[in-house]
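Annotated sample (chain length 359).
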Amino acid sequence: MTATEASGVETGVEVGAVLDTPAPAVSLEEAARLAREAFGITGEVHPLTGERDRNFHLRGADGRDYALRVINPAEEPGVSDFQSRALLHLGEAGPDLPVPRLHRPLSGAAPEALWQPEGGGTPCRVRLLDYLPGKPLHLAAPSGAQRAMLGGCLARLDRALSGFRHPSEGHVLMWDIQRALRLRPLLAHLPEAADRALATAMLERFERHALPLLPGLRPQVIHNDFNPHNILTDPADDRRISGIIDFGDMVRAPMVQDLATAAAYQILPEGHPLEGPAELAAAFHAVCPLWPEEVEILADLIATRLAVAVTISGWRAARQPENAPYILRNYPRSLAGLRRLGALPRAEAQAYLRKALHA
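Output written by the structure step:
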């Protein structure tokens, strides 16, 4: 990485501009007016949490529930359009998938509306989606059956996205682990020296073993954030996936990166570190068979995702303390997973996954 790139990461000017810009300030009254004027929907408005956008739950007078998202003004219009059109694509390519359906504004031409803040300021794009009910996965009881459902669901999602293309699909994103080496300047923000050394070692392993193979693997648009806060389960059955939300981190990347990201959040506190990830990966593999090269570097990519997660989260929480509880929601799980997986020799990790996937 060049000195210019390092400086850009540190200041948030390059890959971290959106993450480093606070969510737009939108009142409940403004959100209600937006929903009414731009989409013709009236009803009760309640705030929702979000990493970089301002989100609201709208209980419509028509008896339906919607999610209104006012997109961060630092988000490039092309990237926002990319995310919205991906949802439109999934509505056709994956009608059986539990993803929110996008509602076009009254103008009908674009998939999003524009909102001009009162008193001036940068206009923001606005997206209206179905609000999906369900229990967040991080509150559900984990099980092998649940991880199998997750793996199969993700494989079907990736298959549906495989035919989607967009001019902004190659945008630069901090959470894109194929670009993980850009984050090296941020490792200094990890509070514990041992964790800094571990994250550094995982990035070095990624650079040595995974990065050279990535250009030869299957590229496509991926969700890129299949974590327990973005997945909903049926309140009556924790094994059934009722919703996949937050498509704000989508990128074009090797497909196996999507699997690695999801598997990174399934490392259990006891037993073999890769037991949970392997259960998810085996179900994915059954629907969408992995190449030998993808299996070879899967553990490397899982460890890289964990290193990326703790690095970005620690950095952002320090810069935005008012939003730290939300930013750090996955931090303990990611740090624990990084420590457990980092203690496992690479050859052992590869052998375990090959056996689990019969690959």
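Annotation: The chain is about 45% helix and 15% strand.
Annotation: The first helix runs from residue 3 to 11.
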